[in-house]
Amino acid sequence: MAYHSIAARPIAGALGAEIEGVDLSLPLDNRTWSEILDAFHRYGVIFFRRQNLTPEQHKAFSLRFGPHQRVPFVNPWDAHPEMIRVVKEAGDRGVRNFGGSWHSDLSYLPAPALGSALYAVEVPVHGGDTLWASMGAAYAALSDGMRRLLAGLAAVHSPTAAYGSRGRYVDQRLAGMAFDTSDQPDRETVHPVVIAHPATGRKCLFVNGGYTIRFAGQTEAESKPLLDYLNAHAVRPEFTCRFRWSSGTLAVWDNRCTQHFAINDYDGSRREMRRTTIAGAAPRPA
Ligand code: SIN
Description:
The protein is α+β, with helices and mostly antiparallel strands. The protein has one domain (7-278): Clavaminate synthase-like (Double-stranded beta-helix), CATH 3.60.130. It is built from 6 helices and 15 strands. The protein has helices at 30-43, 55-62, 135-140, 144-151, 160-163, 220-234; strands at residues 7-10, 17-20, 45-48, 83-88, 115-122, 130-134, 154-157, 189-192, 194-196, 203-205, 212-215, 240-243, 250-254, 258-262, 271-278. The strands form 4 sheets. The chain has a 7-stranded mixed beta sheet, with helices on one face. Strands 12-6-14 form a 3-stranded antiparallel beta sheet. The radius of gyration is 18 Å and the shape is globular.
């Protein structure tokens, strides 16, 4: 599709584009919306700088992609229960940040998130960038033999390592966030290892280091060598983009074909983001 209402400026070879020519605080006409949706599918993650969004305007734009999804384990923002606030205070030194490992949002649910919309309220002078990786590019770079092997595999996803009793967020000290680990952190979900993107049909690798714990029908020890290989392969630099935030930027990513990683390199500075999460469907095998 050629764009007339927006301009898309790719920021890397595999995924990611900055979108210009749109004010997201205003209602969108149909042509502008269809171009934004096309760019979302084409680039996997899209960025809108210089936006000035109230939470209501953020939610209204996010709803164009689909209904909101509650994020398990993370207490919602009191004022806007459809949102979470992702905050690391200047005083949160030596503390694990939220989203600081490669992951695909809510892959431990039977219906993982379609995507997320993250708005930067306050960002450090330097640091606090986010990385995304294209799971379509990662799959496309696999050998035919590996693709045949993966075609028959499913994998188990679990939130335990993040939100279980010894999970990485349980003893965290992030002053600005609260986690509720009483919400069945031991549940497990099985998804195909290779999925077909529901809009584009593109084959995508669907395992991630944050939540995928083993292949279905195998032990963790049996799964580890191949899972480690796939997790390392999935985030090879040429499949990634790195985004330098400025306050007033909204990023929207497609969780079905990307993973992301929030870099924790800004101790002593404050970073505040607001996120809506967009409800998705059960992934279907490719
Ligand atoms: C997340 O995983 O949603 C957090 C991403 C970020 O803070 O950059």
